[in-house]
Design a protein that fits this description.
heterodimer, A: 102 residues, mainly alpha, Helix Hairpins, B: 657 residues, two-stranded antiparallel ribbon, 27 helices, globular
């Protein structure tokens, strides 16, 4: 049986991660930026899973579960923050939410 | 020997009084302040008296030495907190505690209406503590602590009325001028330790006793040590050239002038030189300098005293002059006579100042003698006390000053280290002393009142003030009688009492300290003493003062006009203050302002500090731009950072592999 080589997974993971970074930096909508973060997390998850499979070890899988849990928690908290910000500022444009310097 | 074993009690009591009044006494009533202030000093006097009684009963050959604990150790340098009592200490203990007690009592009357009553008593108690430290110390370093402490208290009390600019500057002048002398003292102590490897009096004197008398040149180590120590005494005891602070110190309250600037602190220099007699005795050149400075000061200060119009200034110059006599006595080897004059001077000069305070009190604060006159009948107690003190200081036979001054002049004229120049300076000075003191009496108490009787209500002082006057008047009369048998060829009991201190390490035990005995029958001796030059010249001074200020009061003015030049010179105190101002103070101010302030401080120090601050502020302004508040720019920085770390790790990885 032909096994897909690990480098394929890693390249895919890198491409996904790069897309996430680009979206994270260039997008203006907070929800989109949020999704970019999720994309980056899952790109890393893919790399973990690929390595776990390649080395036949469970460590990578355990990491993935942790990342998923953290991502879920982060989504819950993050979306709550987004809703609150929107209620207060009536906008989701990150350029307009620039009070962090104070 | 309860007190003799616990000498520290004598010192601790005034310190305790100062602490209670000064630190806890915020809400104390005057009665409590009085009882703490007077009580602590009175108890100190009683314990000192008990210590003296025990000491005399014991009369040991060696000084009673009590070491309580080690204060400083550094290698071979070791200083103990050690106190000692010998005959010299006994005299000083008595004078200091007794006069202090009287001045404290006097102050309750004199300062009754002043602000800062509690502060005054606290300082005064602190002064007594330091003075006792100075007197009781058994090593030079502890003595120096007391020495500086009394200087501090002098500064605090001269500047007691700290809202008055002249009082503040007088306090600073007193402090800084004596500090110049103290520099010499400090170097002297270091050289002393360097030479003897000890600062304890006993150890130092024992080693010094083994050294031979040095030649008449400022080269021997003992001579240099003695001269350096004497520089300290010059500052503290207001001798030429550092006497200028004492007349200005009269800005302080009058009880302070009486206690600190007449009876006790200013005599510290005399005490120190007397204490260090084993060193001085082996340094003939230093002795000569002591006598020279003493004689010159005695003479010149007396000339300035002749023309002063401020009652306290006359007494101040008189004090400088009398201190000169003490040093003259020490310098010609008559240590006992010098210390004797110290004691009698403490009585009569303390009395003169306290009486002057009473006069000022009666005049409502006016100190100018030309505004007084005719006070004799208005304030009789003050008058009689002051009159007795004047008789004493002028050297009228029978009163305290006669005996002590006579002994000094005798030693200067015919003692083992006699010098006729010094003798004549002292003798003429004595005549002037008599003149200016009777001038003071005649101007103040005789003649017609020159003040506005409707404005100034002259009144006798309360008992708290006149009481101490009477006690001191008694002592000014009888204080010299211990030496009286000497006049008829008998024993001088004062000298005999002090003899062990000065004979123990004397260079030649065969020769008695001071003047030799006069041969002859008692009667001729007495006649000789009573018709000697000092008495004649004192009476001449009295007569001249009477002529000038009672008989024909126009004479002084005419004389001043015909001798305009010398008169102005003396009236302006030989322009010494102006000279010091031009030669020392003005250049110092110029350098301080133009170099130290504007260049060093503003340029170098401020420049460095401000430069660092400006650099940080400007670079901070640049860096601040990064924190824009824009989340996307933060994200960009995170990405750049992550990429940077990754690249770094790759580089390291490639290097390693």
């Amino acid at each position: 049986m032909n096994i897909v080589p690990i480098s394929y997974y890693l390249v895919l993971s890198a491409i996904l991660f790069g897309l996430g970074v680009i979206a994270f930096v260039f997008k203006r909508n907070i929800i989109t930026i949020f999704m970019a973060i999720e994309l980056m997390l899952n790109a890393v998850n893919l790399a973990f899973v690929a390595f776990a499979r390649a080395h036949n070890q469970l460590d990578g899988l355990v990491f993935v579960f942790f990342v998923i849990v953290v991502a879920a928690a982060e989504a819950a908290v993050g979306l709550a923050i987004v809703i609150t910000v929107y209620q207060n500022r009536q906008t989701l444009n990150i350029e307009r939410i620039n009070l962090l310097k104070f | 020997m309860p007190i003799l074993d616990h000498l520290w009690i004598i010192m601790a009591l005034p310190l305790l009084g100062a602490a209670i009044n000064g630190l806890l006494g915020k809400n104390f009533s005057k009665t409590i302040v009085n009882s703490v202030g007077i009580g602590s000093v009175a108890l100190s006097f009683l314990s000192a008296a008990e210590a003296i009684r025990e000491y005399v009963q014991l009369s040991p050959d060696q000084p009673v030495l009590k070491t309580y604990f080690t204060w400083i150790t550094a290698g071979i340098f070791k200083v103990d907190f050690a106190l000692q009592v010998d005959q010299l200490t006994v005299v000083m203990l008595f004078v200091v505690t007794f006069v202090s007690m009287l001045v404290h009592i006097y102050s309750t009357g004199y300062m009754a209406h002043e602000e800062g009553y509690r502060r005054f008593f606290s300082y005064l108690n602190l002064f007594v503590f330091f003075m006792l430290t100075l007197v009781l110390a058994a090593n030079v370093v502890l003595m120096f602590v007391g020495w500086e402490g009394v200087g501090l208290c002098s500064y605090l009390l001269v500047g007691f009325w700290f809202l008055k600019p002249s009082a503040i500057s007088a306090g600073k002048k007193a402090f800084i001028t004596t500090r110049i002398g103290d520099l010499g003292f400090t170097i002297g102590i270091l050289l002393l330790f360097w030479t003897f490897h000890s600062v304890d009096f006993g150890a130092v004197f024992k080693q010094a006793a083994g050294m031979s008398v040095e030649g008449f040149a400022p080269t021997g180590v003992l001579t240099i040590i003695s001269l350096l120590l004497f520089i300290g005494a010059i500052g503290k005891s207001a001798q030429i050239p550092l006497y200028v602070w004492l007349p200005d110190a009269m800005e302080g309250p009058t009880p302070v002038s009486a206690l600190i600037h007449a009876a006790t602190m200013v005599t510290a220099g005399v005490y120190m030189v007397a204490r260090m007699n084993p060193l001085f005795s082996r340094a003939p050149f230093a002795m000569f300098v002591v006598a020279l400075i003493g004689a010159l000061t005695a003479f010149f200060a007396a000339t300035i005293g002749l023309v002063q119009t401020d009652i306290k200034k006359v007494l101040a110059y008189s004090t400088v002059s009398q201190l000169g006599y003490m040093f003259l006595g020490l310098g010609v080897g008559a240590y006992a006579a010098g210390v004797f004059h110290l004691m009698t001077h403490a009585f009569f000069k303390g009395l003169l100042f306290l009486a002057a305070g009473s006069v000022i009190h009666a005049m409502g604060g006016d100190q100018e003698m030309p505004h007084m006159g005719g006070l004799r009948t208005k304030i009789p107690i003050t008058f009689w006390c002051m009159f007795i003190a004047t008789l004493a200081i002028a050297g009228i036979p029978g009163f305290a000053g006669f005996f002590s001054k006579d002994e000094i002049l005798e030693a200067a004229g015919s003692g083992p280290h006699a010098n006729l120049w010094f003798y004549w300076l002292g003798l003429i000075g004595a005549g002037m002393t008599s003149f200016y003191m009777f001038r003071l009496i005649f101007l103040t108490f005789f003649g017609k009142p020159r003040y506005d009787e409707h404005k100034v209500h002259v009144h006798e002082s309360p008992w708290s003030m006149t009481g101490p006057l009477i006690v001191l008047a008694f002592l000014s009369t009888v204080g010299g009688w211990v030496a009286a048998p000497h006049l008829i060829g008998g024993t001088d009991y004062f000298e005999k009492f002090l003899h062990p201190v000065f004979a123990a390490y004397a260079t030649n035990p065969g020769i008695e300290q001071g003047a030799g005995e006069i041969a002859g029958s008692p009667m001729t001796d007495l006649i000789h003493a009573l018709t000697g030059w000092p008495v004649i010249i004192a009476l001449l001074g009295l007569l001249l003062a009477w002529w000038f200020y009672i008989k024909s009061p126009d004479t002084p003015k005419k004389l001043a006009q015909s001798l305009r030049g010398p008169y102005t010179l003396i009236l302006h105190k030989y322009y010494i203050d102006e000279l010091y101002n031009a030669v020392i103070i003005a250049p110092l101010l110029w350098i301080s302002t133009n170099v130290l302030w504007h260049v060093v401080d503003e340029g170098a120090i401020d420049g460095t500090v401000n430069g660092v601050a400006r650099g940080l502020r400007e670079s901070g302004g640049q860096v601040r731009e990064i924190q824009s508040g824009n989340a996307r720019s933060y994200a960009t920085w995170v990405v750049i950072g992550a990429v940077g770390v990754t690249v770094l790790m790759l580089v390291i990885w490639m290097r390693v592999s």
